[in-house]
């Protein structure tokens, strides 16, 4: 019998390296393997990930434990809504909005970053974007943005403009869901995580902080996995 596996997706402008640093340890402690795929480049970000999830689900001939961070969490929930009966649960960190993005801080930030990259070029945009931010976040952005390369601005726009599942759609997901929120994150407000949890029939929220995340990447993954374990009871 194959070992349980969780397929986890990164957020906007991020990468699988960050996903592994957040989730590999907490999942392993629960006996679950991690599959963290490299993000598709450019405008293929969303459709590429959703197609990838389809392929993994077909290959495993069964149901998936699925999740992600920020935009990755949106896509995981979107796939689960579209594929009832094929998802065993969701591990969601830092959902950024429900339904249309409108003026959600994460959407506005992604659009501003895309504008900056297109106007100034990648390296100058990076220098401007990391000025004054926490060193750990500067390091993550520098690595991930350079890996996205020429496709970065397009991928940021895909994420910024794509609707997340509505709260009404989330009400139909009768599966265990663990949600992690950072209470000091203005880009991914904890209120959004609470709204998702209020809509989902079997969801639990665990809170942490960006300060903890900076010192211990696994703090975010532990929060999501622990919340999912509670929701399974």
UniProtKB/TrEMBL annotation:
Record carries keyword Hydrolase? yes
Q: Name one GO molecular function term.
A: hydrolase activity
Q: Which UniProt keywords apply?
A: Hydrolase
Lineage: superkingdom: Bacteria
Sorted alphabetically, which InterPro entries does this protein's record hold?
AB_hydrolase_fold
What is this protein's record name? Alpha/beta hydrolase
Source species taxonomy: Bacteria, Bacillati, Actinomycetota, Actinomycetes, Pseudonocardiales
